[in-house]
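agent> step 3/5: call structure_predict on target 'Putative oxidoreductase' (Hydrogenothermus marinus).
agent> reason: downstream docking stage needs a structural representation; sequence fetched in step 2, passing through unchanged.
tool.input:
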Amino acid sequence: MIKEIYKKYEEILNKSSDFFLLAIRLYWGWLFFRAGFWKFTHYPQATKFFDYLGLPYPEYFVIFIATVETVGGILLFFGIFSRITALILTFNMIGAFIVGHKDALLSIFSKPEDFYMAQPLTFLIASLIVLFFGAGKFSIDYLILNKYFKN
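tool.output (status=ok):
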């Protein structure tokens, strides 16, 4: 009896995973887009912040990161090249931790609350979810793969 209940529970979760991946992609794709677009629309403030962080050529770094986040957010939202996009966004968030939230990163074990409260963490987790689990059935990736590469 317990085995059958667990099997049914597992079945429900497996069928729900595509909705979960869709929710992750839509929400975090939108947030990545907004973060990147903000850097474009607030270029002087973003450049000043990147300069404060000690990044070389902050005016170019802002354009690069804004492009990665804006385009990456759109691609993630629609589920286009999702795993490649998620890999790039993962590196972007690791870079954000290293450059902008180094203290939080270094306190991962000594003061974990600083680490899990750091802004890049949730973006990083969302990127990792899509990187490892893909975009799900409700994505352009899925449509393309099934239409052109179906066995």
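agent> step 4/5: record observation. Residues 2-148 form one domain.
agent> proceeding.
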